[in-house]
Amino acid sequence: MNFIKLKSQLRRQEYAYFDLPKYYADNLLRQRKLKVKIICEMEKEDAPYNVIFCRVPKKETSSFEVAMGELEKKMLVCGHTDYPDFCSEFIKNYKLN
After folding, report:
1. Torsion angle (degrees, nearest 10) of CA 55, 87, 47, 40
2. Is residue 72 within 8 Å of 2, Cβ to Cβ?
3. pTM of the predicted model as reported, rounded to 2 decimal places
4. Which positions ≥6 away from 84 have C-beta within 8 Å?
């Protein structure tokens, strides 16, 4: 899994997801015409991926989660074979899930 469900509000769901500094997710989210609001981004010098924190309207959460599945496939196709392990390890180590 490459995203974490965070705080849920009345009309919005907050997420954290993992992306490259090249922002592969942007095109996937744009193609689906999702109204994703980026809250902040966390990057670490020695980490290949950034953690992006965002808000998504509740009615768009399933489309967002499908787009995150597409992001994982895109990472693998583009040669980032460490991506699934990085995401799992990050979630496990930081107990965000």
Report:
1. 10
2. yes
3. 0.89
4. 2, 72, 76
Written as six digits, the tokens of 6 are 């965070």
Contact 22, 50 (CB under 8 A): no
Cβ atoms of 86 and 72 within 8 Å: the answer is no
Q: How many domains does the chain fold into? A: 1
Domain with 43 in it: what CATH number? Answer: 3.30.70
Domain carrying residue 17: 3-94
Summarised one tens digit per residue, pLDDT across range 39-78 is 999 998 888 999 999 999 999 999 999 999 999 999 999 9
Distances (CA, A) of 73 to 21, 33, 38, 70, 78: 17, 19, 22, 5, 9
Query: Residue 53 forms beta bridges with which residues?
Result: 16, 40
